Amino acid sequence: MDFFAGNYPETYEPYGDETFRRRYFSFRGRLNRNRYVARQILVWFVSLVSGPVLENYIYTAEPTPLPAPNVWESVFHWAGGTAYAASSVLPVAASYFTLSVFTFLYFLITIGCSLASVLLNIRRAHDRDHSGWYLLLCCIPLVNFVILFQLLFLRGTRGPNRFGPDPEDQPDRPLL
């Protein structure tokens, strides 16, 4: 596959950002600075907002107003468990089932945001003509600041590189 000569395989989609999954959960292709920063801000915003909201239901000392707590307790009783209100850590109106749902939802959002952030970093490294393995250098103190500076402030490779064509050549791609 010779990107420099403009020869692409038939299955290659040079600007495959038309779906949410390809925008945030793909490591193929390149991502320019503007889209990288906008998408990272969105991922960080989702992570920062969802954390405190869900933790409010998971770890609270006061009774939490849940939607129809008797319904949750009856569902939990029906499943063979015992709804319970524990010490000062667990909400009085919440059952084990409710807490596990909120905890699982919090876990899924955290894993999803972390994965999206890593994959966005890999695509941005591709724009700078580095492999995704290059980001392992972020484990070295002080080197991580240099890499972050490159990802945020330096322009990507002009023209095509080994990871695809220049994303600046297609201005109508979605920002978020």
Provide structural commentary.
The radius of gyration is 22 Å and the shape is elongated. It has one domain (24-169). Helix 2 runs antiparallel to helix 4 (96-127). The protein is mainly alpha-helical. Helices cover 48% and strands 0% of the residues.
Descriptive terms for the model:
176 residues, mainly alpha, elongated
How many domains would you count in the coordinates? 1
Radius of gyration: 22 Å
Task: Count the DSSP helices.
Answer: 5
Largest sheet: none
Q: How large is the share of residues in beta strands?
A: under 5%
- H/E topology pattern: HHHHH
Mean pLDDT across every amino acid position? 75
| N→C terminal distance | 29 Å
> What is the 3D form?
elongated
| Weakly predicted, low-confidence segments | 75-92
Number of strands: 0
Helix content: 40-55%
In short, what is this structure?
This protein is an all-alpha fold. The protein contains 5 helices and no strands. Helix content is about 50%, strand content about 0%.
Which helices and strands appear, and what pairs or packs with what?
Layout: H1 20-24, H2 33-58, H3 69-78, H4 96-127, H5 143-153
Helix pairs in contact: 2-4
